[in-house]
Amino acid sequence: MKKSLGTKVVAMPSPVWVVGSYDDSGKPNMMTVAWGGIVCSTPPCIAISLRKSRLTYTNILMQKAFTINIPSVRHVAEADYIGLASGKDTDKFAATGLTPLKSDKVNAPYIKEFPLTFECKLLHTIELGAHTQFIGQIIGVKADEEILDHNGMPIVSLVKPLISCASDRAYYAFGEYLGQVYSMGVTLRDSLMRI
Question: Which of 134, 173, 135, 176 lies closest to 16, judged by CA?
Fold first, then answer.
């Protein structure tokens, strides 16, 4: 029997992404977010949700651009720190030793040490309540060569992305390989079609 938990934000897992942006003086900033995901394939779009009090919120509205940087498990301490410190009074790049690089696609920095980056131009903002959703059109993707397969696509086991869980407020490594999308259910689909 299921037990009602009321209204809670306990969907799992959540990505651990680091958003890169520039302030009004061109200073790079980064912020860790867990509320985000791919929201459209054509045009390719990604969304994140931020509170208005965050420097990144102001930066994205001003620059109309941001990057999504995927940290690997080896950067869990840095990703956590980036979510704890405020860019309003801390240079998070200097504090963590991470390197900001200027995107050649959008007016936002990306993080050299993180294996995968999405360069986004701001497409829409949606006021939701405590958070505002920023929908960015993916203008470019940058990836370390060593995480790519023979077709030039990122391999999740080499990226080693972090995930988080809202219910226990913890970080986790990515899980085990189970099978290919649109193939695991083929046997079930075919048996149901015979009924």
Answer: 173
